[in-house]
Amino acid sequence: MSRTRTIKVDYLARVEGEGAMYVRVRGGRVTDVQLRIFEPPRFFEGFLRGRRFSEAPDITARICGICPVAYQMSAVQAMEDVCAVPVDPQVRALRRLLYCGEWIESHALHIYLLHAPDFLGYESAVHLAKDHPAIVERGLRLKKAGNDLMTLLGGRAVHPINVRVGGFYRVPTRRELVPVTEQLKWARDAALETARWTGTLEFPHYEQDYEFVALSHPDEYAITEGRLVSNQGLDIAVREYEEHFVEEHIPYSNALHSSLKDRGAYLVGPLARYNLNFDRLSPLAREAARAAGLGPTCRNPFQSIVVRSVEILYACDEALRLIAQYVPPERPSVEVVPRAGTGYGCTEAPRGILYHRYTVDDAGFITDAKIVPPTAQNQKAIEADLRAFVDPRIDLPEETLTWQCEQAIRNYDPCISCATHFLALRVDRE
Amino acid sequence: MSTPVDADRLDRPRVLVIGVGNPYRRDDAAGREAVRRLRDRAPHVIATLEHDGEGTSLMEAWQGADLVIVVDAVSSGVAPGTVRRFDVRSEPLPAAILRDSTHAVGVPDAVELARALGRLPPRLIVYGIEGRAFDAGEALSPEVERAVDEVISRILGDVQVEGGPPADA
Q1: Could B1 and A126 be called an inter-chain contact, meaning their C-beta atoms sit closer than 8 Å?
Q2: Touching check for B32 and chain A: CB below 8 Å?
Q3: Structural domains in chain A plus CATH codes
Q4: What is the pTM for the complete model shown?
Q5: N or C terminus of chain A with fewer C-beta within 10 Å?
């Protein structure tokens, strides 16, 4: 057999959106890896200019159907930063609760319907469901628990509309939280079972020395706020983001690639959060991680499916804690008077940090917007992974190698609709 | 998600029309536009829902309905405005036909997942409207505008025929 081959995978299924991944193999070595994204990415940033500051949360929530809460939260944080709005502690708690719903929903979808089929040798969730309906039903019910929490707090499931700069339009009574509490107790048990189950999957032997980047908060597993930290010494305020991270345009992709200045690729998302904030998980979540075979450090991206399970468990645990302590704020929101300036927001979307920056004039109109979604930040890491992962496996049969490449990409739960819109994956071997 | 099906009309089959699409992607919004117009033309008669097409929440949405009609945009290379109708109980939905969702579990996946799990509604009809433009924006192409009206007429026909009294009533 020739030592020169070109691997071709024309379509990457089961990522959020559609794009292309291209891997070229020459002389038995990977010579090129490109994550290609075709859609012009900056539509929403342009769309926001000239809009009212108060519209940013609802407009940006449309960027992604899977993580609208993340977009709303980064947007309100940035706008509240511009306008120097104090956030009521109970409003803050409710936002964290809403965000827990999104983590549960998004992670359950990815684990059960998108990633597990890779590990179990099924072409898709439909094929998995035919053989193991009970497993898929558990995933769907878990996802629904997250959805129902989002519906209750966000006003509706798909694109929550209840979040506003300064607070919420309406806040729930304690009584309204009762039904969802019962559901979350079931979900917490199901999440424990999920962690146990994903811990039994077979993981390719693959580890990398990533630079993990996540928010970090002294008192909690960071979701809605914190400083940006890394395992290689980064420790900055959100407003310093652009002094340390750069975006560059890559000819083969319409999405901008992010990198750390002078250092290059970095990884955001569940694996980064877990490694940087393990000690701030709840005891139950830490214990489940250990029982599933994870230490406090995990450098195998394929095990992100276990980490997501642990994060679902944490989100259920945390949601129950927040509900137990909830006292409705006196007012659902405070009045916000716009003022000229620039504000910064960064929160932990299910896939990793989501950065927003807005400049607003003194009448409250947006004059400039910048949005850096997690998938854009992971693009370099995904490419580096494919390069390192394919090299020692170059002689695997075509179908096996392609399968494993797609599985490796799905480790990142890439959301191409956030990074742009459509991504089609292409791996190419000669 | 609260059930969009009118629970008061227990004597009649529960009909739900779901319009799928992204409101900011021009012709991708054809399904949403169809249910908006349907709501104007036949308020209180048919339950409607605008949806972004995420498959698992579609499965939640149609739970409890007897007749579900989904309207979605199509990108298959035929003339823009072409309308295709699929009776999903008797045939699988051609996955390559419907416009790829921005979500990994799209309409065809939802249908097949529901079939595998025994969660298909008793009657499920899918209308595909071939779009011309799917870039960022809010206006429908003229051919798609016309197709939306055609689909509304056909839906009203479906509801009369298929949504009539069940055979055992």
Answers
A1: no
A2: no
A3: 9-28+32-429 (1.10.645.10)
A4: 0.89
A5: N
